[in-house]
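Tokens as discussed.
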């Protein structure tokens, strides 16, 4: 299927430039039709919705990593350096902090096709987890001070559509690469392998309701330095900041980032489960 500009608005469609440009007055035709100078629209490089064509942008996915229903505790560093997540000694030694550990857990789970059948192989994944050092979403509330320049090794792209593991559209990120709330669908898409029959799923995030880090609740462990020690402790007396997605209610508000604190050693019981939200990078 191709698209051609409405003749009345052909001039505006012909001035499009750059990935993500849109033409809001188009009509469907067959075949492949050039729109403006140098632009060709096909179903493989565009998202097509009624009366809107978005150029060069395809939705990316998120999924909930929960260790096949048994959960993860907040010691991302320790868990990622042991089997089966780190399959070799060299892979384990390459993990030097909790953020790298969480990313390794995301990559490990994404490769388990029986756990996550909707995940395509060969993609790169990172964890929506901040520590205020290695990974930061915003340093001011909702990145209002300096916008996307506040990001550090952040997991979302700006102006990008995302879908959850249930294939439901979460929404489109802002120019600062964060979501405004409420989202259209939950960040976490439920599946029986990940969540089991528990009342809620919780994601370790380290985030406030405004995307800034809460460094005091990052499960600091006794490793080499304060920077590398975050998410390196499973002590049940220490707090870890989590976002909450209540099973069956489809939470859409900012409590998906920050609802309360769970203890750093908690994985799962009949009431709930802890895990991390993994975000597609390519």
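Sequence:
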């Amino acid at each position: 299927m191709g698209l051609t500009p409405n003749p009345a608005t052909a001039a505006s469609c012909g001035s499009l430039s750059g990935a993500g440009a849109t033409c809001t007055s188009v009509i469907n035709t067959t075949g492949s039709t050039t729109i403006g100078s140098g632009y060709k629209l096909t179903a493989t490089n565009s998202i097509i919705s009624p009366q809107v064509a978005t150029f060069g942008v395809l939705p990316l996915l998120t999924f909930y990593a929960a260790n096949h229903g048994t959960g993860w505790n907040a010691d991302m560093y320790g868990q990622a350096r042991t089997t089966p997540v780190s399959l070799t000694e060299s892979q384990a030694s390459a993990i030097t902090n909790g953020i790298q550990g969480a990313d390794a857990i995301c990559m490990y789970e994404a490769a388990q096709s029986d756990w996550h059948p909707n995940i395509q192989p060969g993609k790169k994944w990172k964890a929506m987890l901040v520590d205020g050092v290695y990974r930061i979403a915003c340093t001011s509330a909702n990145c209002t001070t300096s916008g996307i320049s506040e990001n550090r090794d952040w997991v979302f792209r700006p102006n990008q559509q995302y879908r959850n593991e249930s294939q439901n559209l979460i929404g489109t990120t802002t120019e600062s690469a964060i979501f405004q709330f409420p989202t259209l669908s939950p960040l976490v898409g439920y599946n029986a392998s990940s969540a089991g029959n528990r009342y809620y799923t919780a994601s370790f995030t380290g985030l406030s309701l405004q995307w800034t880090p809460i460094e005091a609740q990052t499960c600091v462990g006794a490793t080499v330095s304060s920077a590398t020690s975050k998410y390196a402790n499973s002590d049940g007396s220490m707090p870890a900041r989590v976002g909450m997605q209540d099973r069956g209610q489809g939470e859409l508000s900012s409590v998906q980032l920050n609802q309360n604190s769970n203890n750093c050693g908690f994985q799962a019981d009949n009431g709930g489960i802890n895990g991390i939200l993994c975000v597609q990078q390519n």
